[in-house]
Each structure stands twice: as structure tokens, then as C-alpha cells.
């Protein structure tokens, strides 16, 4: 069939990519004539094919409206053939780059920096490009303490690891092209998936750091009630609900919104702090109302003990828990651009209580 406009979803086996495809179908992307170029790394090709097969069984109209491709995101032209590249140059309208690695692995820095370079190179050759969306990280703030604004990037901050620095470099590449390409940057924190689609084996879940903290609290709720009266300064937990992220992504793709060159910080607008997060959990776990009068906020000393206890208690050797990064940010994130978009398109955000109920029910 004649491809009218093509949406590239790069990093389609990520939880964000899987849910975004569903959201786009549900919101009428196929009815609007869009074709999907669904890409992943070669090692995940089988997983992607299995997933798309299940999606097609739910949405038969998807048949014949997509192409699955195994790409090398760090290679020039993604190692696509000349014919494949030329077809993309003619038909691509949107590129969604989700192919960044979010764990501190040896090859994360090269993949995240080189990957955005090759994506930009491809985007510059697309004759009908309407939007290039890059999903970044709230941790580009590095060691900065205080409110970090959506439009900020380089304020002299240092980075604790190459992973966080890789997102900073990728954003720097993109910002240099704000006046040339229609770019949007979406910064996300720790993903909370509140979506359930049993047929696709999608269930509510969250990033491992928070999941581990929930497990610990659930197993040790009786200990936490007896903590001494220490105080923890406001430390925001940058939680990114997947419903919110996928809704904003699909809105930016399918609606004619002139917000090129803007950065959005996609975290829960309620700006959850660690102590309120633990209080909500305890309230749900013990099924009783727990207020600050009964359970007191915690000290930095306790947090450090908690982090080390989680590692030994749960024996999580596969991926070391980095709760200190999560907890010691001591900042609030500016989400002005995000709130403007939410209000403009009447996008609702569920409460954190609902997320936690689902997490406790399905995961832990």
C-alpha cells in the first residue's frame, strides 16, 4: 500500500514503546493513515515480533500497516539498506527515540550519545518530518540542588556517572538544532506502569529501586512505626506514570501542536516526597489511617541504613540499588510546560494512591 506518513518508534521493546504503540492505535493513528516503522536492537527482534503478533490479534486493522526492523542505532543509517533509508526519507513524519539505555552499563554512554547522533542524521534527511521526540532523563541535573527548570540544561553541574552525562550530551546535540528541526524533549524519572492489558502480558509495575523500597516497607512496616523523630528535608521522588507519558507522547504526535523547541518534565504533578510516599504505603499496607503524628519523617542516617539494608536483605546483586541517587536529590522539578499541555488537552493524572494499590496488588 502507499505509505502516507510513517511514524518511527525506535526502542519499541521498551515498556514505553509497547504502550505508546497501543495508545496511538487507540487514538486513531491508523484511521489517520499512519504507517509504523517499529525498530529495536537485533537481540530483541524475536520479543518484538511476538509482541506485535499479540497486538495484531487485538487490533486486526494493524495488519499490513507496519514494518518491524532490527537496527544498530549506533551505526550510520542504522545499518539499513539504501532502499530502506530512501523510503524513510520520503515518508517519515515522526521519529520517537526511545532507544536509550537507562541502566549504568559499560556500553550505555556510547549507545545513548552515538544513538542520538545517527537519529539526528536520519531526521535531517526526512523531507516531511513534523516531529522528532527524544525521551531523556530528569537526572541531567547531575549534582545540582534546588529547583531545576524545564528549559535549563547546562548550569555547570557535575555528573555522578556516565549514564546521566550521556542524556545531558544527547540533549545538547538536540538543542543545537532547535531552530532547524521540529524537536521536543521529554524528561522522565522512575517509570510507574499503571496499565493492565492481560492479552499482552502488561501488568502494573515500577522501576526496581522503588519496587525494592516497597518490598522492604511491606516486610518491615512494624519496624518503621517505631522510628525516632528525625527529619528528612523535602526530597522529590521523580515518578513518571506511564499513562501520563504515553498520553502526552500520543498527543504530541497526533495533534497539530506548535511546541517545537520545548522541553517537558514528565513527572507526577503531585511532586511526591519520600516521607509522604512511605506514609501512603504504610497506610495501604496496614489498612489504617497513618498521619505524620503516628509515623515520623526520617533522617539521612536512616535513609543510608535503609539503602544498605535493602541491598543485603533482598540480595539484589544483578543491579545494585541506587536509592541514594533517588532520595538525596533535594529538589523540586519545574513542570510548567507539562502542566500547560495537560490543561490544554484536559489530560487527567491518576493519584499516586491508585498506582500504589495496583503495585501492591499485582507485583509485590
Structure, briefly:
The protein is of the alpha/beta class and 364 residues long. Helix content is 41%, strand content 14%. The strands form 2 sheets. A 7-stranded parallel β-sheet has the order 3-2-1-4-5-6-10, sandwiched between helices. It has a 3-stranded mixed β-sheet with strand order 8-7-9.
Please identify the top-level CATH class of the domain at 5-193 and 238-269.
Alpha Beta
Please report the number of helical segments: 12
Relative strand content:
5-15%
Round the mean pLDDT to the nearest integer and report it: 83
Q: What letter string, H or E per element, gives the SSE order?
A: EHEHEHEHEHEEEHEHEHHHHH
**Helix/strand-derived class?**
alpha/beta
Per DSSP E runs of 2 or more residues, the count of β-strands stands at 10
Describe it for me?
The chain is of the alpha/beta class. It has a domain at 5-193 and 238-269: NAD(P)-binding Rossmann-like Domain (Rossmann fold, 3-Layer(aba) Sandwich). Helices cover 41% and strands 14% of the residues. It has helices spanning 15-26, 45-58, 82-91, 108-125, 162-175, 208-224, 242-254, 274-286, 300-314, 323-327, 336-344, 352-362, and strands at residues 5-10, 34-40, 66-70, 92-97, 131-137, 183-188, 190-193, 205-206, 239-241, 262-266. The protein has a 7-stranded parallel sheet, with helices on both faces. The protein has a 3-stranded mixed sheet with strand order 8-7-9. Helix 6 crosses helix 8 (274-286) and helix 8 (274-286) crosses helix 12 (352-362). The N and C termini lie far apart (46 Å). 38% of the residues are buried. Mean pLDDT is 83; it is low at 227-233.
Amino acid at each position: 500500500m502507499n505509505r502516507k506518513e510513517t511514524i518511527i518508534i525506535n526502542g519499541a521493546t521498551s515498556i514505553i514503546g509497547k504502550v505508546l504503540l497501543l495508545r496511538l492505535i487507540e487514538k486513531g493513528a491508523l484511521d489517520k493513515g499512519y504507517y509504523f516503522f517499529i525498530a529495536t536492537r537485533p537481540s530483541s527482534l524475536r520479543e518484538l515480533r511476538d509482541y506485535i503478533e499479540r497486538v495484531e490479534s487485538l487490533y486486526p486493522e494493524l495488519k499490513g500497516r507496519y514494518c518491524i526492523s532490527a537496527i544498530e542505532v549506533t551505526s550510520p543509517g542504522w545499518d539499513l539498506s539504501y532502499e530502506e533509508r530512501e523510503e524513510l526519507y520520503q515518508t517519515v513524519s515522526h521519529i520517537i527515540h526511545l532507544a536509550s539505555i537507562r541502566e549504568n552499563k559499560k556500553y550505555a554512554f556510547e549507545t545513548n550519545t552515538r544513538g542520538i547522533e545517527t537519529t539526528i542524521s536520519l531526521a535531517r534527511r526526512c523531507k516531511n518530518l513534523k516531529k522528532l521526540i527524544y525521551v531523556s532523563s530528569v537526572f541531567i541535573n547531575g549534582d545540582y540542588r534546588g529547583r531545576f527548570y524545564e528549559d535549563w540544561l547546562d548550569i555547570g553541574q557535575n555528573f555522578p556517572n556516565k549514564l546521566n552525562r550521556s542524556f545531558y550530551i544527547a540533549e545538547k546535540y538536540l538543542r543545537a538544532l532547535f531552530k532547524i528541526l521540529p524537536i521536543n524533549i521529554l524528561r522522565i524519572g522512575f517509570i510507574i506502569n499503571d496499565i493492565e492489558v492481560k492479552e499482552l502480558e502488561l501488568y502494573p509495575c515500577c522501576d526496581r529501586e522503588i519496587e525494592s523500597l516497597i518490598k522492604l516497607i511491606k516486610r518491615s512496616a512494624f519496624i518503621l512505626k517505631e522510628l525516632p523523630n528525625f527529619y528528612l528535608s523535602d526530597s522529590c521522588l521523580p515518578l513518571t506514570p506511564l499513562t501520563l507519558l504515553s498520553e502526552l507522547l500520543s498527543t504530541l504526535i497526533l495533534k497539530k501542536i506548535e511546541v517545537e523547541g520545548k522541553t517537558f518534565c514528565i513527572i507526577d504533578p503531585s511532586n511526591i516526597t519520600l516521607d509522604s510516599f512511605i506514609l501512603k504505603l504504610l497506610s495501604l499496607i496496614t489498612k489504617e489511617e497513618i498521619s505524620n503524628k503516628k509515623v515520623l519523617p526520617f533522617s539521612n542516617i536512616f535513609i543510608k541504613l535503609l539503602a544498605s539494608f535493602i541491598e543485603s536483605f533482598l540480595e539484589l546483586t544483578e543491579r545494585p540499588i541506587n536509592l541514594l541517587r533517588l532520595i538525596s536529590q533535594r529538589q523540586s522539578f519545574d513542570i510548567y510546560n507539562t502542566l500547560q499541555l495537560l490543561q490544554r488537552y484536559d489530560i487527567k493524572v491518576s493519584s499516586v494512591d491508585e498506582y500504589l494499590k495496583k503495585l501492591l496488588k499485582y507485583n509485590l
